[in-house]
Amino acid sequence: MTVCPIALVAGCQKCPAFSICPLKTVLGDQKPESSASKDKPGATQQK
Fold first, then answer.
1. Residue pair 11/29 in contact by the 8 Å Cβ criterion
2. Confidence category of residue 27, pLDDT binned at 50, 70, 90
3. What is the pTM of this model?
């Protein structure tokens, strides 16, 4: 659920605090790291 007003209007990528924001996966529109790495084509899976 996107709660951040900047993420609602412009998206997390366009936010000036994107690189330091600790809540972009909680309040913003970014996917958590674990599921994002599974969805990438060509990502290596560790066994």
1. yes
2. confident
3. 0.52
**Structure tokens belonging to residue 14:** 């366009």
Return all residues near 37 (Cβ < 8 A) that are at least 6 apart.
Answer: 43
CB 4 within 8 A of CB 28: yes
Tokens standing for 32? 């958590």
Q: Is 18 exposed, middle or buried (0-12, 13-18, 19+ CB in 10 A)?
A: middle
Mean pLDDT of 11-40: 78
The whole-angstrom separation of Cα 34 and Cα 4 is 22
